[in-house]
Design goal:
Elements: H1 12-31, E1 34-35, E2 44-46, E3 54-56, E4 63-64, E5 68-70, H2 81-84, E6 91-93, H3 96-112, H4 125-134, H5 150-159, H6 185-211, H7 220-233
Antiparallel strand pairs: 1-4, 2-3, 5-6
Helix pairs in contact: 1-3
Protein name: Protein kinase domain-containing protein
Pfam families: Pkinase
Domain Protein kinase: 1-182
Length: 234
């Protein structure tokens, strides 16, 4: 599947054609309790120019959902965290969630021409950045994902849920096929500049307040203690 241009990817309209067909294939497999386990661009066969007819192929790793397998060394960007985190030779249960994760990484690759990370492990900076956003530890869009609309980021959040039991089904993508997935380039740049400016303003404001002896952080325990002392003094 060498049609994906590095650093660029495919057009949104072409990606949607592919997504609809591959998701349909995976949805059918999952309804039969089958897990493909090797979703990646190399396993998508293009029959017609314009991506009007593509097929998911290579079912050599397909297993029944619930099957126990052993982890072997190595992982690729499509490998979900539940497998990356497992120890070598540890038993792993095959789930449809693994396909959903790989499908989301595939979607990112087709849209950008890049991988979102090398491995879904905390040692990977880009993965950690995404997980912090995914878990709402920050509202700042991860650096690799700024081209996507909020609506698109919502489905990525669902498909790339680190906890496999919370990950959505593959059919969830159908709800987003009619949405706009990418921002205009100028809008993405403006958002990045705005975030930077807002951060600078906040730092300046914090510095001014601190210089005047005004607390900028709320200590809940201290506040509760002061309230208690005030009540006792009444």
């Amino acid at each position: 599947f060498d049609m994906i241009q590095p650093q660029t990817g495919l057009s949104e309209s072409d990606v949607k054609k592919i997504v609809k067909q591959v998701a349909s294939a995976l949805d059918f497999m999952h309804s039969e309790s089958l897990v493909h386990r090797d979703v990646k661009p190399e396993n998508i066969l293009v029959f017609e120019q314009g991506f009007h007819r593509v097929k998911l192929m290579d079912f050599g790793m397909t297993r029944k959902e619930g099957t126990l397998i052993r982890k072997v060394n190595g992982s690729i960007p499509y490998t979900p965290p539940e497998i990356c985190e497992a120890l070598r030779n540890e038993n792993i249960t095959v789930t449809t969630g693994g396909d959903v994760w790989a499908f989301a990484v595939l979607l990112f690759c087709m849209m950008t021409g890049n991988f979102p990370w090398e491995n879904a492990e905390t040692s990977d900076v880009y993965y950690t950045e995404f997980v912090n956003w995914q878990r709402r530890k920050t509202t700042k869009t991860p650096s690799q994902w700024k081209k996507f609309t909020p609506r698109m980021m919502r489905i990525f959040r669902k498909m790339l849920e680190p906890k496999v039991e919370r990950r959505c089904d593959i059919k969830e993508i159908y709800k987003y096929l009619n949405d706009t997935w990418t921002r205009p380039t100028k809008e993405s740049d403006a958002e990045e500049e705005s975030c930077s400016t807002d951060s600078d303003h906040m730092d300046q404001l914090t510095s001014i307040l601190q210089n005047h002896g005004i607390e900028t952080h709320i200590d809940k325990r201290l506040r509760e203690r002061r309230i208690s002392e005030w009540l006792l003094a009444l």
